[in-house]
Amino acid sequence: MGASEAGPIRLGLIGTGLAVEKLHWPALRRLPDRYVVTAFADRSVTQGERFSDYSAVDMAGFTPDHHRLLARDDVDAVLISVPIPSLYQVAEDSLAAGKDVLCEKPTGTDEEQARAFLALEQRHPDHTILIGENYLYRDDIRHARALLDDGAIGKLHLMAWRRAGHLVPRAGSFTSTPWRHQPQYRGGVYLDAGVHDIAQIRMLCGDITRVHAAVQWVNSTIDSPSDLTLNLTFAGGAIGNYTSTYSEIPIPEEPNDMRLYGTEGVLVLSGPESERRVTLSRPDGTTQTDVFRGIDSGYFAELCNFSDALRHGEPVIGTVRQSVANMLVVLRALDSAEQGAVMALDRDLETGGVPLWRPRGASGLFDGLPGERTASATPRRVINRSSISTVDSP
């Protein structure tokens, strides 16, 4: 453990681009008792000045060279938010300098680098590495997972999820980033954004054992597959389908909901970022819907887990192995599409599933976290059995 025992963790930021501005800094500023930013590095002086302006962190702590930041004695840990091709090298430099690491996902550009990340972790057993798989910390997903753990839908047997969105470069958004247009990493948008969805699938359905996929390249603004359809087999016996498109043309509004079918109920995750919903439907016709507003997609909780790991030795949920497992589902899907074959996932990288994170010392799932949750239920309704269609056996 590299962090000092007293006071907030002295954090250095390596990379101060859009991910820090839109995702990490809003969470960090809510945690002054846990973190103080003492230094920040970015190759762009302009970008560093922008961070200093909105964060009020003095430019005296800025350097364009991350090695100089790593040499500082007043940096206990680093948050690495650089382009995907640079993540591994910066993480390696940081651990070699004796710093604990919170690193953006994914774990590298390809399978070779992912496995190198695993070896890197093994070479530094005395330091904490958390990979920023923020969906593993998102309140609505954790709530859904708790319902599944409690047997709310019985035994899961089918997952169905279709996602469709419009993706073209827009100024000031993640889509405007040049390195995302011409990615130097396999899978493009699916290794960048798609691993979030894989993390959610694995969080709720468990380890994936086999994949069978097809892809299309029909978005001229990104040099990567734009469409993916993926059939999945899970270690627990369930099957599933995930279909996604990053469309170049505007498309009609779609629900983009994830449905989990069990022997005793159905669970649906839906809604936009501003109002995420988890709806449990039971065979008797009753439903319960939990609505989450003002949550931050898991970045606050992720930072809490990291600080608790450094201060109190708590285990991290976003481990290198969990991130590699997410990444390899995407890579095996690409292999499957290229070879026209079912691909097995590597047994040596099975994780036994994703643990459910809970706030340290809390009795509930959401104690001390931002946002609000409201629950509503509908009474039992009479189901007209004659209106339910059936399929006769041949």
UniProtKB/TrEMBL annotation:
Residues 9-124 form the Gfo/Idh/MocA-like oxidoreductase N-terminal domain. Residues 141-267 form the GFO/IDH/MocA-like oxidoreductase domain. Gene3D superfamilies: Dihydrodipicolinate Reductase, domain 2, NAD(P)-binding Rossmann-like Domain. PANTHER family: BILIVERDIN REDUCTASE A, BLR3664 PROTEIN. This is Gfo/Idh/MocA family protein. It comes from Pseudonocardia aurantiaca.
